[in-house]
Each structure stands twice: as C-alpha cells, then as structure tokens.
Amino acid sequence: MNNEQLGYDPSIISMSDGRRFIEIIRDGHSERLILDRLMKRAPCIAGRATTCWIAHREGDKSHAPLVIKDPWQYPEREEEGKLLAEPTEKGVVNVARYYYHETVQVGGNLDDIRGNVRKGLDVTQATNYRPTRFQSSSVANAIVDTGRICRSTSRTGCKRSSSRAGEHGRALQNRVHRRVIIRDYGSPVYRAKSCISLLSALENCIKGYESLHTKVGFLQGDISTGNLILNDDEANPSWSAFLIDLDLAIKEQRERPSGARGKTGTKAFMAIGLLLGEKHSFMYGLESFFWIIFWICIHYNGPDESRIVPRFEKWNYVDWKS
Q1: Could you give the CA distance from residue 164 to residue 174 in angstroms, rounded to a whole number?
Q2: Mean pLDDT over residues 278-284, rounded?
Q3: Domain housing 37
Q4: Using an 8 Å Cβ cutoff, are 147 and 46 in contact?
Q5: Residue 224 confidence (pLDDT) above 60
Q6: Which sign does the torsion angle of CA 299, 208, 210, 246 carry?
Q7: pLDDT at 241 over 80
Q8: How far is it, in rounded angstroms, from Cα 274 to Cα 202?
Q9: Which residue among 24, 77, 155, 256 has its CA within the 20 to 30 Å range from the CA of 314?
Q10: Looking at the domain assignment, is residue 287 inside a domain?
Q11: Where are the alpha helices (DSSP H) in the chain?
Q12: Which positions fall inside the Fungal-type protein kinase domain (predicted)?
C-alpha cells in the first residue's frame, strides 16, 4: 500500500532530502511552499483536527514566514480564507493577513469525510452502530458538542458550540478538508514575558477587533486566549499583536445564518448575554477580552507557570441551561 492508501495527505509531498512541501496556484502562477516545522496538531476523536505548519515560499531569499492551516470544517460554513481576504484587501490592522486558500482535492475529487475518507460507506448500516452513545452529555469529563469530542486538557478553554449534541445523525455530518495560508505568526498572549507585554498585546488585539468591525463589519466570533497572538520577535515581520481564526466570524449584516450548530465560541470567554441566548454584538466581543484578562490572572504566574483551578476550569463544560 502507498502512503495515500494508508491515509496520509497526498497534497503534502516529500522530497529526496527529507523536506516536505505543498504546491499552490496563486495569481495564475505555481508556487512551492516548503514546510519548515509543525506548529500545532489538534488531538481529537471527532472535530476539525486542525493542523498548522510554518512554511516559506521556495526561492524567497527573505524566507518570509507563512502559516498553513488545515482544518476539517462543515461544508455549510463560509470558508475562512474568503473571510480573511476581505479584511486584508481593505487594510484592517492587527488581524492575520491573507495569502491563499483552497479546498483540498485528492485525485481531482473533493477531500471530504463521506466521499474520500469513508468512500461512501454508511456507518449507520453497521450491525453494531449505536447512535445513542452520541447523545450522552458527559462521558468521563469529555463533552460532546455537535459531533465534536473535547477533553479538558487545556488551561485556556476549548472551542466548541455551546449547544449540547443530542440530535440523531449529527455525528454523521460531513466535513471537508480546507486550507488557508496567512502571513503572520506568533505565540498566544498568555505566554507574554511581562505584564507590560501582555497589556500591550491585548490593547493591539482590541484595536484589531475594532478595525475588523469598523472597516468590514465583521465580529470575530471567538475572542479567546488561543486566538490573540503576540509577536515579540524583532526579526518576525508579523504584526506585534493580532487576531487569528476567523472561521467563526460573523458578518454583522448577514443575510442568512452562518451554518453554525448552536452558539459557537470558547465558552469560558463568552459574554454572559451570549450564554443566555442573546444576539452577538460588538460589545459582547469586548466583554470576552475582560474574561481573558481574568482567566490569565487566575491561571498564570508567568509565561511558563500555569495551573489548573477546578472552580474555573468547569466554566468551559457546565451546562448553562440547567
């Protein structure tokens, strides 16, 4: 069996010297992006399984860094790449800048769960299929939300829909393999080396949140510790601090629902009004910044000194409807 048959991503190609790359067609020209290192691989049983790499364009002597983000997303959600392109074109500040996006194809076909991974296999026809197991609200501290299973291993909260899973068939929803490439990278703000650095980063992220709303009418949709990024490397040409992750962004004057299953975001940082079912607003995003400051003060004594506080850890898992 070859690597593709074993389940490896065939869009990532290995060279004889051990390096790996992807190829894209951008502005009518072919580009080869060399993968320098893995940034993040989200461990999950069912979910977006996002993987991120730091890369650079072959032939670029400056080695300007690019971030390649590969998530598996619900097809009805608007592509994050499209949502990032508009702010970049309109000069929004302190938001990750767009470079390229695509929906990955394998053998000329869409890379998705139903068609390419399961090859049309209908798991509901299996003799041991048990749909009721997806209706449990909690299993050994795991939360099942809209077909996503997330275990409490992070001190910074876990993104999910805040509505409980309970509808038969949600676990069988299709997901597609998407790819978005941006021109900015850094570290989460909770790794700031000083209080001044942290507060400066938060200030710039708030400016980015405001710029995104003022210039393109977007609400970021998931203000959380993992989506506020700090760049304290003078050699890094990225913004000094910026927002990432617009896949849950909301167009304030949208004509139709976003496709999200229930309220989405990182529950520990969501505004109280949102948890009570009110409509998202600019001010609710600002409230999330307050909860981030609160969370960091409770859980961190410095960039490498963190702790779990059970009293607040459960904020991300409690059922607010009960």
Answers
A1: 18
A2: 93
A3: 10-70+98-120+173-183
A4: yes
A5: yes
A6: negative
A7: yes
A8: 22
A9: 77
A10: yes
A11: 80-89, 195-216, 272-275, 282-299, 310-313
A12: 1-297
DSSP strand pairing (66-70 vs 72-73): unpaired
* Torsion angle of the four alpha carbons 249, 288, 163, 227, in this order, in degrees rounded to the nearest 10: 50
Q: In this structure, are strands 138-139 and 142-145 parallel, antiparallel, or unpaired?
A: antiparallel
| Residue 234: inside a domain | yes
From residue 45, alpha-carbon distances to 88, 150, 169, 171, 303 in Å are 34, 8, 16, 11, 29
Cβ(98)–Cβ(182) below 8 Å: yes
Query: pLDDT tens for residues 76-102?
Result: 888 999 999 999 999 999 999 999 999
248 compared with 90, residue with greater pLDDT? 90
CATH number, residue 217: 1.10.510.10
Structure-token pair, residue 311: 């009293």
Q: What's phi and psi for 231, nearest 5 deg?
A: -120, 105
Burial 270-295 (b: 16+ CB within 10 A, else e): bbeebbeeeebbeebbebbbebbeeb
